[in-house]
Amino acid sequence: MISIAAIMLSSFITVSNAILKSFLQFLCDYYKFETRTQYNLEVAKGIAISQFLNTAMTPFMLQVLFSKGSYIGKIFGSGGHVYN
């Protein structure tokens, strides 16, 4: 059961990262930056931030919401998100 949930979460993160990348490229095309360098920098910054939030925060929020015990113990306790 846990393996299926892990595979589904990994698949969700991978697919949503691809969708975020396409959306950010579309958004940067819409802004019409003056130079190609400025366009590339904005796309790279947007992708880096959005993929970090998606990849790191999704499992973190699921762990906090669906694990048993106190919120502080889930984050900082033995086997918690910060401990590892």
Blueprint (SSEs and pairs):
Elements: H1 2-31, H2 36-66, H3 71-76
The major sheet is characterized as: none
Based on CA atoms alone, the radius of gyration comes out at 17 Å
Please bin the fraction of helical residues: over 70%
How many domains in all? 1
Q: What is the overall silhouette? A: elongated
Class by SSE composition: mainly alpha
Report strand %. under 5%
Q: What distance separates the N and C termini?
A: 23 Å
- Number of helix segments? 3
Order of helices and strands: HHH
Low-confidence regions: none
Number of strands: 0
How would you state the average pLDDT, rounded? 79
Structure notes:
With 84 residues, the chain is mostly helical. It has one domain (2-76). The protein has 3 helices and no strands. It has helices at residues 2-31, 36-66, 71-76. The longest helix is centred in the middle third of the chain and has 31 residues, at 36-66. The protein starts with a helix and ends in an 8-residue tail after the last helix.
Brief account:
With 84 residues, this protein is an all-alpha fold. The chain contains 3 helices and no strands.
Features:
about 80 residues, mainly alpha, about 80% helix, elongated
